[in-house]
Amino acid sequence: MNAASVFIIALLTAFLTAAGTVFVFQKYNILPPKAAVADTLVPDLRGLSEADARANANVAHIALLIASREPNSEVKPGAVVRQSVPSGQHVARDYTVSVVLAEEVLKVPAVAGLTVAEATQKLEQRGYAIMLGSNVASDKVPPGSIVEQVPKADTTLAKGGSVTVQVSAGPGDVPVPKLMGLGLTVAKANLEKVGLKPAVRWVSMAETATYVVLNQKPMPGEKVKPGGEIELTVNQ
Question: What is the topology classification, in CATH, of domain 174-235?
């Protein structure tokens, strides 16, 4: 028998012996069981701070991943809003569970009545930019201070948004009310309401009602500066 034949016979003998051994081990349950993969339960992380969530994840032998952050008014800023795997579910050890953390819901602060510099500082502290709109006349807000803002105070606005403000240019011209035919007392009261002053010019006319405004200067509808005088011609 040559060497090649001897090698082939030896190889077949070894193969058959190995196959027979495996068969016997399997038939009589001699082979050891496969090692079970260790698993763990996912804890409930909702409502926990990031630090507490990480601590609980470490105890449970899971990896924690911060997937994103989103504004939420129902959960404290920095706390877990939701998790990718429900609590109580079995996962392999070191399995990655992602969570979403809550951010503060930002609202626009009130800046009406503040100077532009004060409003700018207050808005920038909250992460907003200020935009200057047109100046408007106002007899209630000092010149240089803010009369109106858009969006209004307490409106929800994402960080980085802009707030447009209108700045007071001081009192504007006041339209003169119609005073002719009114009694002097009523005419004076109407002028005071709009910030104007009466200057009475008395006349004496027979067969004409007394203490009634017969004429006025400027005429109704004309505009004058706040505090201006309106001449009233009154019969005595």
Answer: Trypsin Inhibitor V; Chain A (3.30.10)
